[in-house]
Design a protein that fits this description.
Layout: H1 8-13, E1 21-24, E2 28-32, E3 40-46, H2 61-77, E4 84-87, E5 103-107
Bound molecules: guanosine-5'-monophosphate (5GP) and zinc ion.
Guanosine-5'-monophosphate binds at residues 8, 17, 19, 31-35, 43, 89, 95-98.
């Protein structure tokens, strides 16, 4: 399915839950994490509902590549100049809390509250 009506990030995509948006196009949405670990902590998500990296297939190659290549541009626009961290949590042992693929991108001056 392209959207899951019970998924919190699908609801953010649909505008049913507000978010502090950083970027949006036909395929992707980026917004500030509600509980940031770092001075700048954004989530880059596909608009398509993909529950986790376990569900990713070759058909998602361009989409995931787009997420990775967009994020440096967004960090630059957000004024992050001294490096950042990419993180994707997968499944229970990966401590994934929201079952919709998301790329955490965290940066800004240390110390951070986590990570
Ligand atoms: P996970 O542990 O699944 O990799 O990370 C989920 C992230 O989503 C957490 O960092 C959490 O703070 C963030 N998050 C959860 N619900 C919301 C929400 O409603 N809005 C925003 N902006 N972030 C959320
Ligand atoms: Zn979803």
């Amino acid at each position: 399915m392209s959207q899951d009506p019970n998924c919190i990030f699908c609801k953010i995509v649909a505008g049913q839950i507000p978010s502090k948006k950083v970027y949006e196009d036909d395929d992707l949405l980026a917004f500030h994490d509600i509980h940031p670990w770092a001075p700048v902590h954004i989530l880059v998500i596909p608009k398509l509902h993909i529950a986790s990296m376990v569900d990713v297939g070759p058909e998602h190659q361009a989409l995931l590549g787009k997420m990775m290549t967009l994020s440096p541009r967004l960090m630059k626009e957000l004024g992050v100049t001294n490096g950042y961290r990419h993180l994707i949590n997968t499944g229970a042992d990966g401590r994934q809390e929201v079952p919709h693929v998301h790329l955490h991108v965290m940066g800004g001056p240390r110390p951070w509250s986590k990570g």
